[in-house]
Design a protein that fits this description.
Helices cover 0% and strands 45% of the residues. The protein has 107 residues and is mostly beta strands.
Length: 107
């Protein structure tokens, strides 16, 4: 299954926590050195606020039969605990199916 788009929503905080990296199984999908301001960003091939990392290949965005892989996100700082605003991630695949996960940051 090939990922065609990743949408990320994260809580606004002060000071703000910027999104820097999205990776899938260690392969970079997004690498934004300056960081992306909250509260949301879509990442895809075209028509999104951000495009895939310049060296990202279709293979990097593929979840194959190799078993589970982690989709990871790197932020500039931890966001304060929140029971009001969750993190929300939607992953859309090439054939249009999507999965959304919503979690509150409560360590």
């Amino acid at each position: 299954m090939v990922i065609s788009r990743v949408d990320v929503y994260w809580p606004v905080s002060s000071p703000s926590s910027k999104l820097h990296v999205i990776s899938l199984g260690g392969a970079l999908l997004l690498d934004d050195g300056g960081g992306i301001q909250p509260p949301s960003v879509p990442v895809c091939t075209s028509g999104c606020t951000r495009s895939w990392y310049i060296y990202t290949t279709v293979t990097d965005r593929t979840i194959g039969s190799r078993g589970p892989v982690s989709l990871s996100f790197g932020f500039s700082r931890a966001i304060p605990y929140s029971t009001v605003n969750p993190y929300v991630v939607t992953v859309t695949f090439e054939h249009g199916c999507a999965i959304t996960q919503s979690k509150y940051y409560i360590p």
